[in-house]
Amino acid sequence: TVTDSASPAQSTTVSLGRVPAGTQSKFWDVGGDDVRRVVALGNYLVVNASSKIWLLDPSLAWPNTVVSSWPGTGQSYHGYIHDMKVDGDTVILGDDGMTLLKVVTDTGNPVLTELAEVPATSFSGLDATQPNAVAVNGQVAYLGNKTTVWAIDISTPDTPVVMPSTTPGASYANIQDMAIWQNQLLVTSSYANGNSLLVGIL
């Protein structure tokens, strides 16, 4: 059911189709501590495996399905990857701070490359015991941690700039996830008693 909050009477039910059950068409053991998110990017899949990011080509047979991964040989990841969002060819990670990757697919040899790391020290007051959620809206990325949201200018992705932070309200506790909807930043926040709150703040 789709509901317009401004006009509830205009709610309607829309069929999104069916997903057949009982048939497994593909299986990939991509490794990692904990696969947390999968995002489609053109003909590829970007997978957050918590300590690695995988770029998969589902049309290929395993193990050739993995066409690229980050970090590569001699590189290291920047802490547990709590969250991942994809915008165009840019992959934004919420790890110890924020990391930006680029997906290059037009060379015939698809590859994930690191554009920039924004370390935790760039976010004043960040609580390292809490997960970092991320969202992106055009040339601005967001990082949410506990009760604070930071905006990051990514118009030049290899030199991101952290802008002033905002504290949405005293009722917030432990930001869990963020998303963009109609140019608003939506935040899921959980209370200590286990209840959750969904709030649009931007």
Order of helices and strands: EEEEEEEEEEEEEEE
Contiguous helical run count: 0
According to DSSP, the number of beta strands is 15
Secondary-structure-based class equals mainly beta
Element layout with pairings:
Blueprint: E1 37-41, E2 44-48, E3 53-56, E4 66-70, E5 83-87, E6 90-94, E7 98-104, E8 111-118, E9 132-137, E10 140-145, E11 148-153, E12 161-166, E13 175-181, E14 184-190, E15 196-200
Structural summary, described in words:
This protein is mainly beta and 202 residues long. It is built from no helices and 15 strands. The strands form four sheets. Strands 1-2-3-4 form a four-stranded antiparallel sheet, with no helix packed on it. A hairpin with a 2-residue loop joins strand 9 (132-137) and strand 10 (140-145). The protein starts with 36 loop residues before the first strand and ends with a strand.
Briefly summarize what is shown.
With 202 residues, the chain is mostly beta strands.
Tags for this model:
202 residues; mainly beta; four-stranded antiparallel β-sheet; 15 strands
